[in-house]
Amino acid sequence: MIDIPADTAALIFDCDGTLVDTLPLYLKAWQAALQEVGGLDVEAAWFAGRGGYAEQMLLAAVEKSFGVTLDRPAIISATRRRVRETIEGLRCNVPVITVVREWAGRLPLAVASSGSREVVEASLAAIGLLDVFSAIVTIEDVEHPKPAPDIYLLAARKLGVDPRLCVVFEDSHEGLKAARAAGMMAEDVRPCSEFRIAP
């Protein structure tokens, strides 16, 4: 059970790995796109610990690890397309979704994700929650990705609330660091992860 402080003005949720388990979809999509566009075979183990990376951060790490220069736009486009094509298999993080449903209509809710808008909105639509959030902020909306605080500060601004009165739900080191740098309270959802199909 997650307690929400009494003075909380808004709740802000990461998407991938927090609301929904897109990480397995992204893993297969990245592997396929890197093979198809870049001619690279990247083992699943390489991606371990990089689940919170924004697209450009991940590709920079691939280039450094494998000593290559990639066609980043083409790989990103192929990856997003493959994730969208498999979105029907998406699973929810039930404890976090329960918080969303409990507080919808009682507090302003936002999503602040390092993912692309097309995938984030498709993910939320797939689990029937797209219309629940008053603001959706994605990697296209900010100059600096997590762990910079930009994405969370923009979400608070769009909701019209003081960042210090926001509670953030996150599943990555980068995201938690970003939320705290924004002056927000941060809940690490990893201990309560229970991915399964939402009822």
Structure description:
It is built from 7 helices and 7 strands; from the N terminus they run βαααβαβαβαβαββ. It is an alpha/beta fold and 199 residues long. The chain has 2 domains: 10-21 and 90-196, Rossmann fold (3-Layer(aba) Sandwich), CATH 3.40.50; 23-88. A 5-stranded parallel β-sheet has the order 4-3-1-5-6, with helices on both faces. A two-stranded antiparallel ribbon has the order 2-7. The model is unreliable at 195-199 (pLDDT under 50). One of its GO terms (molecular function) is sugar-phosphatase activity. InterPro entries: HAD-like_sf, HAD-like_SPP, HAD-SF_hydro_IA, HAD_sf, PGP-like_dom2.
- Fourth CATH level, the homologous superfamily of the largest domain: HAD superfamily/HAD-like
- Supply the CATH class of the largest domain: Alpha Beta
Estimate nothing, just give the exact number of structural domains.
2
SS field, number of helical segments: 7
**Element-by-element helix/strand order:** EHHHEHEHEHEHEE
What general form does the structure show?
globular
Average pLDDT taken over every residue: 92
Rg, Å, rounded: 16 Å
Structural class: alpha/beta
What can be said about the biggest beta sheet? 5 strands, parallel
The second-level CATH architecture of the largest domain is: 3-Layer(aba) Sandwich
Task: Kindly state the percentage of residues in helix.
Answer: 40-55%
Q: Uncertain runs with pLDDT below 50, 5 residues or more?
A: 195-199
Give the strand order, joined by hyphens, for the main sheet.
4-3-1-5-6
Strand content range: 5-15%
Distance between the termini: 18 Å
Total number of β-strand segments?
A: 7
- Here the CATH topology of the largest domain equals Rossmann fold
Pfam families: Hydrolase (PF00702)
GO molecular function, one term: sugar-phosphatase activity
Organism: Acetobacter oeni
InterPro entries: HAD-like_sf, HAD-like_SPP, HAD-SF_hydro_IA, HAD_sf, PGP-like_dom2
